[in-house]
Design brief:
The structure is a single chain. This protein has three helices and two strands. The protein has 90 residues and is an alpha+beta fold. It has a two-stranded parallel ribbon.
């Protein structure tokens, strides 16, 4: 099964995303993880690279870059053989 990382973000935004996942029955097809990726934003902002997505900066599209960080954290855990934080449908 494919693993889809999600970033821990504002409760209202995360709830909206999780409801969409539930409604589309994606929990039956994929494993979702939840990562606290806030520190990755600091690393990205302090990088010598100017990171943007379609012209939007980290401050303009915070959730995109949080999710990017979550993907990196999840990939690192998998590479190290560590347990990932799978979300369970309740």
């Amino acid at each position: 099964r494919s693993i889809i990382p999600l970033a821990d973000m504002e409760e209202e935004k995360l709830s909206y995303i999780l409801e969409q996942i539930r409604h589309a029955r994606l929990f039956d097809k994929y494993d979702f993880t939840l990562e606290n990726a806030s520190e990755s934003l600091t690393l990205m902002k302090n990088s010598s690279f100017k990171l943007t997505t379609m012209g939007r900066s980290i401050d303009d599209d915070r959730e995109f870059f949080l999710t990017l960080g979550a993907a990196g954290l999840t990939a690192a855990k998998i590479a190290k053989g560590e347990k990932i934080n799978k979300l369970a449908l309740v």
